[in-house]
Sequence to fold (312 residues):
Amino acid sequence: MFGKMNTAEIEQLLRQQLVGRIGCHVDGLTYVVPVSYAYDGDYIYCHTHEGMKINMMRKNPDVCFEIDSAWNYSNWQSVIGWGSFEELAEGPERTQAIAVLRERKLPMLSSETMHLGLLWPFHSGERDVDGIIFRIQLKEKTGRYETTTAEPFFAT
Amino acid sequence: MFGKMNTAEIEQLLRQQLVGRIGCHVDGLTYVVPVSYAYDGDYIYCHTHEGMKINMMRKNPDVCFEIDSAWNYSNWQSVIGWGSFEELAEGPERTQAIAVLRERKLPMLSSETMHLGLLWPFHSGERDVDGIIFRIQLKEKTGRYETTTAEPFFAT
Fold:
């Protein structure tokens, strides 16, 4: 059975998933790139460094954001949304974004990462981090699922 | 440690994964959509029905294809490629595509799906199936990984 996810189901999947994909487009080239993210109900927040996706989104901030969760071929959910890329310079909005990213990411770090004490910026208790912080406000969101059970498959 | 995947590693991940994401773009709109696929070393093959992604790819066949596999935030692989969408009308190329899809998908079907005998087209022994079969030949492929162990994390 195929279905459309309602708003609550879409919000739940956006809060549960850890990795999404940004689709951007400049000069005839479409680029789909995975990102780890945090979602606070208003914005998708990401931390990254200079590179192809940032260069492209600076040129064309209209992006697509996708997440999916599949248990098998016939039990899956996906959310697709559209919004605008916004790079956050130092200031209250960047500080808020870092707080959301830190709260989401720190508990999910692997024991290896923690043990190795890698230079992952969110380990630090500093207010700011190195690198680029950006956000995407999803102005439109759609969600679909397929299920073989009475209840839709929901990711946990 | 971050790294670039070599050709063998890229091919391995393309054969291992079951779900990828197509990025397409028409008239200022970028769309990223998850698809189940099969890969034979030459083409990405997909089965679908009429809808937004097919309409967009018919208008602009230049697409991006992405797969990723993450064990955690610091151990992941991803492959991103670019190619052209080709819809396969009845004929030897469509028959070959269906054979590749059937070989890949049938062993991966859930026991629920099998038990329910759902109308999934690849269950049938027929040579053709309902719906649209298309392929993407990836003309360019890149792969990246991050690992916290001596060896890159490779999906199994």
Q: What stands out?
A: The first strand of chain B starts at residue 2 and ends at 4. The helical segments of chain B are 7-16, 52-59, 92-105, 111-116.
